[in-house]
Design brief:
With about 110 residues, the protein is mainly alpha-helical. Helix content is about 70%, strand content about 0%. It is built from six helices and no strands. Helix 2 crosses helix 6 and helix 3 packs across helix 4.
């Protein structure tokens, strides 16, 4: 693991918070499935990475709790307010993107 000084940690945390704001407030129109298909990660990945970082430090956070911390609401609320139905082609592309990018490292 790379050692970061305090300033680097603070800048990285600020960049993370800005990304979170961008995805959760500025661009709620961008669907997770499209992010996953194009970039290989989505909001759920970010919440999972948060959960994994906590676990590395001995802090247990469940999957849904991590998502709620990232989303600022429950998944049911997010889905009701922002998620649209995925098309057949989106779902097919997602299968490939998920297999290529989501690794079970445990």
């Amino acid at each position: 693991m790379t050692d970061y000084n305090q300033e680097e940690i603070e800048l990285q945390a600020a960049a993370y918070r800005r990304l979170q704001k961008h995805l959760m407030q500025d661009r709620t129109d961008v669907q997770n499935i499209d992010m996953m298909n194009l970039a290989g990660f989505c909001r759920n990945c970010l919440s999972r990475w948060y959960q994994e970082a906590a676990a590395e430090r001995g802090i247990e956070i469940g999957k849904m709790e991590a998502r709620e911390l990232f989303y600022g609401m429950t998944m049911d609320e997010w889905k009701a307010n922002y998620q649209t139905d995925a098309s057949g082609p989106q779902q097919e592309a997602f299968k490939t993107a998920f297999a290529e990018n989501v690794k079970d490292d445990k």
